[in-house]
Design brief:
By secondary structure, this protein is mainly α. The protein has 2 domains: 31 residues; 66 residues, Recoverin, domain 1 (Orthogonal Bundle). Helix content is 42%, strand content 5%. A two-stranded antiparallel sheet has the order 1-2. The longest helix has 27 residues. The protein is rod-shaped, with a radius of gyration of 32 Å. It starts with a helix and ends with a helix.
Length: 128
């Protein structure tokens, strides 16, 4: 069997390509960092699936200060965009319970934005 120069060139290129691909695979594997072994300490790790099903919108923001406007305070407390705040949402506001109770007009345990504005004014001592 006689190999022409074109066939020899094709075989040489194919051989070089396959060698290069194999070498690139080895080099790539060598460049890939190994995965760290999981830590056995649970002191700084969140509980498994602690955030499963939660979005960033489900994370409470810092409690508003009395200097903030009622609308800004309401948006901070209604972090998930429900359109109302509950006693639980306002629990970080020490002393807000009375203002909540006084301004929950329909006694449903929720303050709408309008009810909240009145409660915030009472709580903060600022007139809006």
């Amino acid at each position: 069997m006689t190999i022409t120069s074109n066939e020899a060139s094709s075989l040489l290129v194919a051989g070089l390509l396959s060698t290069g691909i194999a070498f690139a695979g080895i080099a790539n594997a060598a460049d890939t960092p190994a995965t760290a072994a999981p830590s056995t300490s649970t002191a700084t790790q969140p509980a498994p699936n602690a955030s499963a099903g939660k979005s960033i919108m489900d994370t409470k923001a810092a409690a508003p200060s009395k200097a903030e406007s009622p609308d800004t305070a309401f948006r901070k407390l209604d972090y998930s965009g429900k359109g109302y705040v509950t006693k639980d949402d306002t629990s970080a506001l020490s002393g807000f319970e009375k203002a909540f109770q006084d301004n929950d007009a329909n006694h449903d345990g929720k303050l709408t934005a309008d009810e909240f504005r009145k409660a915030w004014s009472e709580f903060s001592g600022n007139k809006y």
